[in-house]
Fold this protein.
Amino acid sequence: MNKKILVLEKNRDILELINIVLTEEGYDVDLLSSEKEIFDHIRDFQPDIILLDVISPTEEGTALCKTIKAAEASSHIPVIVLSTHPKSEVVKEICADEVVAKPFDISFLLSTIEHYLISA
């Protein structure tokens, strides 16, 4: 059975690129460009990992990440944050399992995903 990755990315071009790369790697992918109904997607899709676009490591910017990690149904799912913010590493201290800075190297993103899927 293929591993499932839920991707929330607000930039549609990046979302499409991630979809192409992950699909070619054999992952089942669920794509979201909005936070709306993310918990319905988590419940229905049951992802093995979540890629989450976080614009800023502020209280507001990390609220969804913290909610995902606090919810009983999703706390066990690794969250990899994708961010352009220069201090995005702070998100790892707040809620994320890992942070990948944008623009990202595709091979680095894939190796990070693989690492967390093996660890899970």
